[in-house]
Amino acid sequence: MRLKEKITEALLQLSAIFSVLITVAILYVLISESYFFFSRVSFFEFITATEWTPLFTQKSYGILPLVTGTVLTSFIAMLVALPIGLTIAIYLNVYASPGFKKVIKPVIEVLAAVPTVVYGYFALMIVTPFLQGFIPGLSGFNSLSPGIVMGIMIIPMISSLSEDALHAVPQNLREASYGMGATRFQTAFRVLVPAASSGIIVSIILAVSRAVGETMIVAIAAGQQPRFTFNPFVPIETMTTYIVKVSLGDVVHGSLEYQTIFAAGITLFVLTFAMNIISFYLKRKFQEKYE
Amino acid sequence: MEKLFSLNHLKDKAFLITGVISTFFGLVVLAIFLANIMIEGIPRLSLDFFTSLPSRRAENAGILIPLIGTIWIMVLTSLMVIPFGVAAAVYLEEYGAKNKLASFVEINITNLAGVPSIIFGLLALELFVRFLGLGKSLMAGSLTLSLLVLPIIITSTREALKAVPRTIREASYGLGATKLQTIQMQVLPSAAGGIVTGIILAISRAIGETAPLIVIGAMLYITSPPTSPMDDFSTMPIQIFNWLSRPQKGFIVNATAGIVVLLSITFVLNGIAIYLRNRWQKQVKW
After folding, report:
1. Residue range of the domain that includes A108
2. Residues 102 through 131 of chain B touching chain A, CB cutoff 8 Å
3. A265 and B122 in contact by Cβ < 8 A?
4. pTM, whole model, 2 decimals?
5. What was the pLDDT predicted at A224?
6. What is the domain count for chain A?
7. Cβ proximity of A215 and A244 under 8 Å
8. Rounded to a whole number, what is the distance in Å from the CA of B158 to chain A's nearest CA?
9. How many other C-beta atoms can be found within 10 angstroms of the C-beta atom of residue B262?
10. Nearest residue in B to A271, CA atom
11. How large is the ipTM?
């Protein structure tokens, strides 16, 4: 009997440790393949050159066009998701009845359950033609439309996580504010939002991290053309879409072209890893504050 | 003073209206998108569409192969990820409470949950496709998606276990049950509703994924549905992406019809998950 308990505990522990092995494997694969890449391409060129043309005869290995593409689509997505998501969070927490909140929160989360390839279709076939009605110079592939659609997709990340943070603010702070004669609006912005700020920041960081790693919407609607620009009306390419583009072609294993996807991959990983870790410690801090 | 007072109330009301509009904005946009999809896609749905192989002519092409691929992926991924995910969650929640290992694993899982799905594709390309020699098979694809949704299952299972009150555990210990017996006979059955909900949502996420499967190469032209885990495959999202990348109008219509099928599967799974969660919450009032 004792033995069975011990064996089970060991097996369960192994399963938990297994998840650490996944991270180790990701790091190993990314680092070892990029090591080969950086032994052939100078790191300086990689981070400063403004052209990314590894698949052309005239090769240049500057990651900057992919970075600007990623920053541009993520920025547009946040312009949509941040104000809407935060407004929803505050509205649901401060104004809406608990019954309404309970029903509507999972419904809004449906936005995040729609497969991204479907959002890609929306961006390409519905939003771009619609925007072209207002913006004559808008190319059929651009970063504006996938950015907006991505923003709609990540609304629930911000609204749900920020609402959780607002919900964690102790009830007596809220009542004290109302007792002083403050309106709901004043209570929300002068008491609750500052008190829940670290939780709200966590939701924002996680949303940015999600936008940076988003692949299919941009692969379908942004054009897959690396371009060092912040113009939202022209075709661009992100780090993620570059990986997709190369994967769709016939690139020989071990070639420099093959290794470029790992160089793009490790850049993406480092960026999102930093954001995830910062948000983890912020979240832990704000949980301590009120427990 | 009177005027200031009313200005504040005006702001209060203005925000209320903004809040209502924001809450419904995303949903209204999604509704417009869905209406558009249904108008374009539903007329294309026919029995032939479900039973046809891929074709160079849009009107003859069907989703038999990707649909069967998606079902395979669903089954294989579930088989692989559920035992590992639930076991890891039980360890973290019931055994590892405050030890160093558990807290390290926890940081790690939070981070994994935020790793872009395409990175899992790069890992799988080296590890499963090449190192383990699984090629572009269903097995390689399901393993990739298992790693991807593992953090989701661990997190949701932990939430479900956390919701089981300590009194139930203590009552069980009081009757002389061991820790393992308590977990098996009391804690897991009490948390089952929450665990199953999390599993369904994770699987729904897995079958909607495209990017990591493209990276491992699952886009090749195949002529017959997979019949074993070692066969090459395609899935619904991959087929939709493939059709969307073609210029002819006929293939775009096919993509729309494919989206109707994929979304139906996704929404049915999500509906079941929400239903189970509500029933479970109602049933168990501690």
Report:
1. 64-289
2. 102, 104-105, 107-123, 125-127, 130
3. yes
4. 0.92
5. 86
6. 2
7. yes
8. 12
9. 25
10. B115
11. 0.92
CATH number of the domain residue B67 falls in: 1.10.3720.10
Distance (Å, whole) CA A206 – CA A278:
10
Question: Chain B residue with minimal CA distance to A215?
Answer: B211
Q: Are B91 and A9 in contact (CB < 8 Å)? A: yes
Question: Do the domain assignments include residue A133?
Answer: yes
Domain identity same for A85 and A26: no
CA of B48 to nearest chain A CA: how many angstroms apart?
A: 23
Q: With respect to residue B9, please indicate whether it lies within any of the assigned structural domains.
A: no
Tokens of A49: 């050159």
**Which among A22, A23, A105, A178 is the top mutation candidate for probing chain B, defined by the most B β-carbons within 10 Å of its own β-carbon?**
A22
Residues A24 and A82 placed together within one structural domain of the fold: no
Q: Determine whether the interchain pair A104/B25 forms a contact, defined as Cβ–Cβ distance below 8 Å.
A: no
Which has the closest alpha carbon to A30: B111, B112, B121, B213?
A: B121
Ordered per-residue pLDDT tens for chain B, 286 residues: 455 567 888 888 899 999 999 999 989 999 999 999 999 999 998 888 998 888 888 888 889 999 999 999 999 999 999 999 999 999 988 887 667 888 888 889 988 999 999 999 999 999 999 899 898 899 999 999 999 999 999 999 998 998 888 898 999 999 988 888 999 899 999 898 889 999 999 999 999 999 999 999 886 678 888 888 988 899 999 999 999 988 888 899 999 999 999 999 999 999 898 888 878 776 665 5
B90 in A contact zone (CB under 8 Å): yes
In a domain, B113, yes or no: yes
Q: Do A223 and A89 share a structural domain?
A: yes
Contacts (Cβ under 8 Å, ≥6 apart) of B278: none
User: What is the identity of the amino acid at A167?
Assistant: H
What whole-number distance in Å separates Cα of residue B132 and Cα of residue B129?
6
